UniProtKB/TrEMBL annotation:
It comes from Eleusine coracana subsp. coracana. One of its GO terms (biological process) is methylation. This is Uncharacterized protein. GO terms for molecular function: O-methyltransferase activity; protein dimerization activity. It comes from the Eukaryota. SUPFAM superfamilies: S-adenosyl-L-methionine-dependent methyltransferases, Winged helix' DNA-binding domain. Keywords: Methyltransferase, S-adenosyl-L-methionine, Transferase. The lineage of its organism: Eukaryota, Viridiplantae, Streptophyta, Embryophyta, Tracheophyta. Residues 105-245 form the O-methyltransferase C-terminal domain. The keyword Methyltransferase applies. The keyword Acyltransferase does not apply. Residues 1-75 form the O-methyltransferase dimerisation domain.
Length: 259
């Protein structure tokens, strides 16, 4: 949560704009915190340094520097494959849905096989214990969180796919078509289509996800398909499953058809 707070206050970006090293007065001047809260900022900074989550501190005087991790959270114009920052990814993993589910983790571990207390049958995921439904249904009902989630995953995909297409491009040799199953905002498929125009790329996802992608993003030659991966996966030479394993594991009979 400290990292989420740092992202929301723009602390990595403030350190970057101060030339890569910021004193406490530099930060106090840069972050949007009212006077009566400023005395508490050093505690947050200390926590970020001690956990090595985002910042390092010079020994001689208190100067904060970006670490390799927090450099990825700077909101600047240096784009890798359209991804300027992984800050949206941090926010996508700390939504009220995610935090609520995390608070039920120990309950989930302790739950007996026949214990259906907590609003969910045994062996369901902590998310369902907390929210009474699965993540995709919860996001269908909350477009604000859904957008935050898919913006974050999209940022992650743009960064990751930059490495995939530049360093592992050989895996696309001989692939004429690819479907990104549970492809979210289509960032992965668009990156592949741009790098390898001979690959016909499609994205399969749930109706509310495809509906908002089509409104927000240029298609870039990618086809967006509404569907349920548990029922049908369009035939293609290759199937991409990125960050979908938990969804697939819930349905071991997932009918992958890659003819
Ligand atoms: C964790 S996200 C990953 C998104 C994308 N692959 C990425 O890495 O950015 C999982 C995706 O699977 C989609 N999804 C979940 N259940 C699905 C289903 N039954 N059929 C199709 N898509 C589904 C969700 O809407 C979400 O976009």
């Amino acid at each position: 949560m400290a990292l989420q707070c740092a992202v929301e206050l723009g602390i990595p970006t403030a350190v970057h704009r101060a030339g890569g090293a910021a004193s406490l007065p530099d930060l106090l001047a840069a972050v949007p915190v009212p006077e009566h809260r400023k005395p508490y900022l050093p505690r947050l900074m200390r926590f970020l340094v001690v956990t090595a989550a985002a910042l390092s501190e010079d020994n001689s005087r208190v100067v904060y520097r970006l670490t390799p991790l927090s450099r990825l959270l700077v909101d600047d114009d240096v784009a890798v494959n359209g991804c300027t920052s992984l800050a949206p990814f941090v926010l996508s993993q700390t939504t009220r849905f995610h935090v609520g589910a995390a608070l039920r983790l120990s309950d989930w571990f302790k739950q007996g096989a026949d214990d259906d207390s907590g609003g969910a049958p045994a062996a369901e995921m902590p998310f369902r214990m907390a929210h009474g439904t699965d993540p995709w249904d919860a996001m269908r009902r909350d477009p604000v969180v859904s957008k935050m989630f898919h913006d974050g995953l999209g940022a992650d995909s743009r960064l990751a796919l930059d490495f995939v297409v530049n360093q592992c491009g050989a895996v696309f040799d001989g692939v004429g078509s690819l479907v990104d199953v549970g492809g979210g905002d289509g960032s992965s498929a668009r990156a592949i289509a741009r790098a390898f125009p001979h690959v016909k790329c499609s994205v399969l996802d749930l109706p509310h996800v495809i509906g908002s992608v089509v409104v927000q993003q240029p298609s870039d030659g990618v086809e967006y398909i509404v569907g349920d991966m548990m029922s049908f996966i369009p035939p293609s030479d290759a199937v991409l499953l990125k960050v979908c394993c938990s969804t697939c594991h819930q349905h071991p009979s997932l009918p992958v058809n890659s003819e």
